[in-house]
Protein: Glycoside hydrolase family 19 catalytic domain-containing protein
Organism: Selaginella moellendorffii
Amino acid sequence: FYTYNDFIAATKYYPTFGSSGSLDVQKRELAAYFANVKQETGTLQYIREINRNNVYCDTSRGIPCPAGTKAYYGRGPLQLTWNYNYDAAGKAFNMNLLQNPDQVAQNGVLSWRSSVWFWMQNSNCHTAITQNQGFGATIRAINGGQECGKGSETQPAQNRINYYKDFCSQLGVSPGGNLGC
């Protein structure tokens, strides 16, 4: 499902993704993105969240959860979750993802695009890396409520850090500071 060609097609919507700052910053951004993708998808084996029992509907932001709609559990490389994220991504793409969130799990380009959109527009991950806040800021932005603030790194957060360091090593760049939550 996750193909290189679909990834490249999705990134064309975001020309500053992986191309901002020095070459080292660009490498760190790609390492950070793929480290989080690796954790979220179990090394690109999962398209949908394993535990699909959670509905992830929060109407306090004024975004409904239409009757009959599937739950807003995670889908795609960064596991887009919550009704308000599907709504915002859908508006950015001129699609109704709120009514049909499963489109993110059915179309490879859309799946990658939703994750790059989240990285660039909705989570501040791009800014965290390009402004040298460190990899830990991406963990907080993506899954901080579950993985950060526990007194020490949770296993998922530590996995992300290890993946990031490995990708940085493969790309020949120092991981920089502020790696943890």
User: Anything to note?
Assistant: The chain has seven helices and no strands. The helical segments are 4-11, 23-41, 83-93, 108-122, 125-130, 136-147, 155-171. The CA atoms of residues 19 and 26 lie 5 Å apart. Residues 23-41 form the longest helix (19 residues).
